[in-house]
Amino acid sequence: MDTNNLLKIAKDYGSPVYVYNSEKIVAQYKRLTSAFNKVKSLKINYAVKALSNISVLKLFNTLGSGLDTVSIQEVKLGLAAGFLPEQIIYTPNGVSLEEIEMAAELGVQINIDNLSILEQFGTRHPKTPVCIRINPHVMAGGNTNISVGHIDSKFGISIHQLPHLFRIVDNTKMNINGIHMHTGSDILDIDVFLYASEILFDTAKHFKDLEFIDFGSGFKVPYKEGDIETNIEELGKKLSKRFNEFCKEYGRDLTLAFEPGKFLVSEAGMFLTKVNVVKQTTSTVFAQVDSGFNHLIRPMLYGSQHDIINISNPKGRERFYSVVGYICETDTFANNRRINEIREGDMLAFKNAGAYCFTMSSNYNSRYRPAEVLWHNNEAHLIRKRETFDDILKNQIEIQF
């Protein structure tokens, strides 16, 4: 996707608009599978929550991917995209027993992360295969909101609660076929991840009928030039060796599973916005665009950085701008960022807009959610229409006064 293609997409479908490059998605998927090619059985379950458009899910289906889902709605979306139930793992947090039973009835792999539900489900459905999510109490993640393996996290069953876990499994005679962990997003230190993996291996030894071990994900992608990223190739080499050793100790080959989301789709995405106003104040030059945190909340929520390029004037003189939105609150995308000279009407492209961007969007200020476009086989394909005013009113019910 070059600049001319992006400008044409913005012209054809309007702005703001999300654009995803299928070639980058495929390349990231192949990079991950290649890094773990020494493992006899590898399962990549794409994390639907990162980017849940059904056309993107269908693309992953063609690659042989499975799905990682966190809600019954994501399970149904995966089934609608053509995935078989056995290709889907369902890992909710804090949901009702009824929702978990609904997922089990659909035939997907259940992954339970708390003792209360585990005991209830095991008592009622002892023959249904269940994976158990362990909290290894290992801190990973670039922000407290996405660090889920630490001791104060709401996710997973604490390794300090293993005696309670074993008691429940023994009493219910339930079928445990998998062990899972997730330390958090933006993993920087491979050794920390490998340390957490050893905790998972030690836990797995207590279960004799496992089919897979799921190591979660959270691989960091670069957000700016020279940024640190998870060294997938090094992790693949070290973890594959240790996993194969464990399988020999265990007595049979197991499947090594991952559930990446951001790693697969983040860099594939661009978010295009038009500059409405260039506003000079006493201390700052603002580039005010036709979007806000209703469309891309990550910089405000996580403090994340998205590189911003002026695709209308890529060779212009660089100047410093604060890029802000049109929401009636502070919605700053970038402070004092060096960008090629911005003029009113220029189109800006936000990089790394493939993961947790559209899926976290909203109608705040009664704004429409943008269109989504998939760049596939050198063509632009509209995969979600831009909302209209009818969509704002769609589920509202007017009463008479």
From TrEMBL:
Quaternary structure and partners: Homodimer.
Protein name: Diaminopimelate decarboxylase
Origin organism lineage: Bacteria, Pseudomonadati, Bacteroidota, Flavobacteriia, Flavobacteriales
Reaction(s) catalysed by this chain's protein: meso-2,6-diaminopimelate + H(+) = L-lysine + CO2
Function: Specifically catalyzes the decarboxylation of meso-diaminopimelate (meso-DAP) to L-lysine.
Cofactor: pyridoxal 5'-phosphate
Binding site for pyridoxal 5'-phosphate: 218, 356
Protein encoded by which gene: lysA
Record: active site: 328
InterPro entries: Ala_racemase/Decarboxylase_C (IPR009006), DAP_deCOOHase_LysA (IPR002986), De-COase2_N (IPR022644), Orn/DAP/Arg_de-COase (IPR000183), PLP-binding_barrel (IPR029066)
Positions of substrate binding: 298, 302, 329, 356
CDD domains: PLPDE_III_DapDC
PANTHER family reported in the protein's UniProt record: DIAMINOPIMELATE DECARBOXYLASE, GROUP IV DECARBOXYLASE
Family, as annotated: Belongs to the Orn/Lys/Arg decarboxylase class-II family. LysA subfamily.
Chain coiled-coil ranges: none
Keyword Lyase: yes
PTM-bearing positions, type N6-(pyridoxal phosphate)lysine: 49
Species for this entry: Aquaticitalea lipolytica
Highest rank taxon of the organism: Bacteria
GO molecular function, one term: diaminopimelate decarboxylase activity
Listed pathway(s): Amino-acid biosynthesis; L-lysine biosynthesis via DAP pathway; L-lysine from DL-2,6-diaminopimelate: step 1/1
